UniProtKB/TrEMBL annotation:
This is 3-oxoacyl-[acyl-carrier protein] reductase. PANTHER family: 3-OXOACYL-(ACYL-CARRIER-PROTEIN) REDUCTASE, 3-OXOACYL-[ACYL-CARRIER-PROTEIN] REDUCTASE FABG. Gene3D superfamilies: NAD(P)-binding Rossmann-like Domain. NCBIfam families: EF_P_mod_YmfI, PRK12826.1-2.
């Protein structure tokens, strides 16, 4: 089907989506959201084998074909091996969700070079390597969706989260620039930059700190992972082909 200039659309049930860091939290919610409409699901994880299998079981309950893959996204060779595995299973992605990420909290003065390299390698370099590995097929078939899961701190910055904010700000710039590069090939590139979401990434906060955080947010609560996955799903739809190069922040009015 070719309804839009330059973009060859595929039926949703024939699409395959790869979600990195999908063993829990936002990534798991995204996987289940796509499975609910019958897409083929690829669940990437690094070490959380059992958690990834549990997400896979929930996705399969919707009737989706599901594959789990493990790779260290800091390592290009492991990403290339993951690509080869997906090719051998006939499951190269039409949609790539670069969701894997790690947080860091602390004063910049205390950040070590090793910490800097690790956060940048996972949050920014990992997205670059995965995109580079999987975008070729999207370009050749003239259809694809690349969705990067960023953070509100990549837009506004956060005290004591300079390293994390910098990595997500870089991801936002990567999104905007690549969108221009791939637009003529029918591939959109967007970022979703959530505010505070009720996941283990906020596990370093005490209960009273969570309450204080909720008081700062105009809607008065944290986001649920399903609320983020719904936006990711919308951006992946064939009819969303005119939305590209955008960084959209569902944050409850916290940062406008």
């Amino acid at each position: 089907m070719n309804n839009l200039k330059g973009e060859v659309q595929k039926p949703i049930g024939e699409m395959t989506v790869l979600i990195t860091g999908a063993s829990r939290g936002i990534g798991a919610a995204i996987a289940e959201r796509f499975a609910a409409v019958g897409m083929n699901i690829i669940i990437h994880y690094m070490n959380s084998h059992e958690a990834a299998n549990e997400v896979a079981r929930r996705c399969m309950s919707h009737g989706s074909k599901v594959l789990t893959v493990s790779a260290d996204l800091k390592d290009k060779e492991q990403i290339l091996r993951m690509h080869e595995k997906l090719q051998s299973h006939g499951m190269e992605p039409d949609i790539l969700v670069n969701n894997a990420g790690i947080s860091h909290y602390g004063l910049l003065a205390d950040v070590t070079e090793e910490e800097w390299d690790t956060v940048m390698s996972v949050n920014l370099k990992g997205a670059f390597l995965c995109t580079q590995a999987f975008m070729g097929r999207m370009v050749s078939q003239r259809f694809g969706r690349i969705i990067n899961v960023s953070s509100v701190w990549g837009l506004s910055g956060a005290s004591c989260e300079v390293l994390y904010s910098t990595s997500k700000g870089g991801l936002n710039a990567f999104t905007k620039a690549l969108a221009k590069e791939l637009a003529p090939s029918g591939v959109t590139v967007n970022a979703v930059a959530p505010g505070a979401v009720d996941t283990t990434m906020l596990g370093h906060l005490e209960a009273d700190e969570i309450r204080m955080l909720e008081e700062e947010i105009p809607v008065g609560r944290l986001a649920q992972p399903d609320e983020i996955s719904s936006l990711v799903y919308f951006l992946a739809l064939p009819e969303s082909g005119y939305i590209t190069g955008q960084v959209i922040s569902p944050n409850g009015g916290w940062v406008t």
